[in-house]
Input
Amino acid sequence: MTAPTPGFSELARTARVVICSGPGGVGKTTTAAAIGVEAALEGRRVVVVTIDPAKRLADALGLAGGLTNEPARIDLPARVGPAARTGRSRSTRPKAATATAPGELWAVMLDTRATFDGIVRRYSGTPDQAEAILANPFYRNISGALSGTQEYMAAEKLYELHHDDRFDLVVVDTPPTRNALDFLDAPGRLTRFLDHRLYKALMLPTRVGLRVVNVAAQVFLKSIAKVVGGDVIADVMAFFQAFDGMEAGFRSRAEAVTGLLQAPTTRYVVVTSPRREAVAEARYFAGRLRDHHLQVAAVVVNRMHPRFDQRPAAELRAEADAARASGSAGAEGLANLAELVTVAEGESAMVEPLLAETGAVPVATVPLLVNDVHDLGGLAEIARHLFASPAVRG
Output
C-alpha cells in the first residue's frame, strides 16, 4: 500500500466527528463506512451512523440482520483480505475484545422515534412526567412526522454518540437528498421555537388555566376543536402541560449540539462522482457549509475511470494517426488508449469546478469498481483507494 494522502490519514487519526454529505448514488455510504474501517484499523473506536432510512449501510457492512438505533459492534480483522469478506453484528455493549483489529468498529441506524423518546426521558423531571408525554396521542403523532423532527434527532444522535465513552470517532452518513444538511439548522430552529410567541401562547393555558386566557385565545381553540375535534385539542393541551419545565434542558442541549457541529474536530467530507448533476449537487452542499461558516475538509470523487497514460489524449490521437499513416503496428491500440484518456480527461474537467470552490483540501479518487460493496472486504478495497489516492488538489 502506498503512503496515504495526508489529509485523509489525518481524518482517520484525529477527527472526532466526520460528516459525509453529497448527492444520492455516488457511494457516500460506502465512503463513510470505509473511513470507519480505516480508523478502526488505525486503533480508534469508531461508530458509523446513518440517518438515511434506507438500509445501505447495513448492506455495505454485509449485515443481513440490519441495524437499529443501538450501536452494534462489527467483527473486524486486522487487515481484511479476500478470504475475510463478511461482517457480523454483536450485542450493544463491548465485552472482551475479540476482533483482531487494534480498534473497534460499530454501526447504528437512526430511529427518529426512539431517539425522541430517549430525549423525553432524559429531560423529564420525573418518570411519571416522561410516561405522560410518551403515552400522549399528540406526542405519538408528532414524534415521527413533525417537519424537522428527523433533522433535529439526527443532530441529537450525533451528540449522544460523540459523548458515549465507547467511541472516540463518529462517522455520519447523511441521506441522499438536498435537505441532507438541514440538521445543521435544526438546533437553532428548536431554540427559536421555544422563544416564539406561539409556543408561549400554547404553554400559557397549561400554566394559568383556560379560564384566565383571553377571549380571543379561547375562541381560537374552540374554532380549531370544531375542525380537528375536541379530543385532539385535549391531547395537545395535555402534551404541553406535561412538557412544562423541560424547555431549559432542550434549549441547553440544542446549544451544545450547535457547538459540536461547529467544533474544529468536526470535519465535513463532500462525496461526488464525475457526473454533471452529481457535481452540481456536491457544489450545492459545499455552498450550504459555507453558509454556516463551515469548511469542506476533504473531497471524495467516486467511480472515476482510471487514467492509463499521463500523455494528453490529443497527443495519443496524433501518434495513432501517424502510426496508421506509416502502417506501423499498434495504431489501433494507441487509438483505444486515446479514447480511454479522453474519458478520464473529461471526468477530471467535470469535477474541476467543485475542486476550485473547495480550495486547497485533500481530494481522493476511487475508481469505478467491477462489483458493488456488500461486505468488509469490499470496504477495505474502497479504503485502500481512498487513503492511498494521490491528492488531485491539496
Summary: The longest strand covers residues 296-304. The longest helix spans residues 331-358. The radius of gyration is 26 Å. The chain has one domain: 6-189+249-309+343-388.
